[in-house]
Design goal:
The chain is α/β, with parallel strands linked by helices. The protein has helices at about 40-50, 70-75, 95-100, 115-125, 140-155, 170-190, 200-205, 220-230, 230-235; strands at about 1-10, 15-25, 30-35, 55-60, 65, 80, 160, 190-195, 210-215, 215-220. The strands form two sheets. The chain has a six-stranded mixed beta sheet with strand order 6-7-8-3-9-10, sandwiched between helices.
């Protein structure tokens, strides 16, 4: 569970992306984070993982203030999948996913049998087990994105954040990926938040929608967001 308590984010007090925002993201749900470009979607995600300072307020994960959580503990609570294209020529998919076990391995980073099993289980969950020993430089964008999600699953965190995970995918793969995220949230009781510009996918697959209309954020169950008028107001032509 993520709790935002009266948080403010931005470049300075006169240019706030978010101002005095409070809401809660619960486990077992998928949330689409939407808004115009440059309004703070990525900044908010970086704040949740502790890499973006708050101007004001607090962020709690499972009732613990992130400012009081050390980096290793935080890495066992939150996994983050960036929007960057990943092409690692010399590492197999299995090795990439194994990086998700870093918060748990011994001091020399050696994986035990349990870690190996978790890596293969994570690949299996995203339908990529048969790709375990292939390298990502010979795979499609959709396949690579599934491997990065498998790495996040191998991290075994209750929370997964994804920054525009469908950016480089065609429409069928965008829908399939978001369907996968929704299934993972429901079946494994994870809190999954992903930023997106795909309003149709957000409305059809997500449990809640968090809409940033700087400096405000509206966070509602999807059905309530659809009927609220917030989406039309944000994206209407000026």
């Amino acid at each position: 569970m993520i709790q935002l308590q009266n948080i403010s984010l931005g470049y300075d007090t006169k240019h706030l992306l978010l101002d005095n925002v409070s809401t809660t993201f619960t486990c077992g749900t998928t949330t689409a984070l939407i808004g115009r470009n440059g309004t703070g979607k990525s900044t908010l995600m970086r704040a949740i993982i502790g890499s973006e300072p708050l101007k004001h307020g607090s962020i709690f994960i499972n009732n613990a203030d992130i400012q009081q959580i050390n980096p290793q503990q935080l890495s066992q609570l939150v996994a983050f999948v960036t929007t960057e294209r990943i092409r690692i020529a010399n590492l197999s998919c299995r090795d990439v996913v194994a990086l998700g076990r870093a918060p748990y391995t011994n001091w020399i980073g050696r994986m035990q049998a349990e870690d190996e099993a978790i890596v293969m289980q994570s690949l299996e969950k995203v339908g990529m087990a048969s790709y375990a020993f292939r390298t990502m430089d010979k795979m499609s964008d959709g396949e690579c994105q599934r491997v990065m999600i498998a790495r996040a699953l191998a991290q075994q965190t209750p929370i997964i954040l994804l920054d525009e995970p469908t950016s480089f995918l065609d429409m069928p793969n965008r829908y399939a990926l978001c369907r996968l995220l929704a299934d993972l949230a429901h079946e494994e009781n994870k809190c999954i938040i992903f930023s997106t510009h795909e309003l149709d996918i957000a409305q059809s697959l997500c449990d809640t929608i968090a809409l940033i209309d700087s400096p405000n954020m509206h966070h509602l169950p999807t059905s309530e967001m659809i009927s609220s008028g917030h989406i039309e107001k944000l994206f209407q032509m000026s």
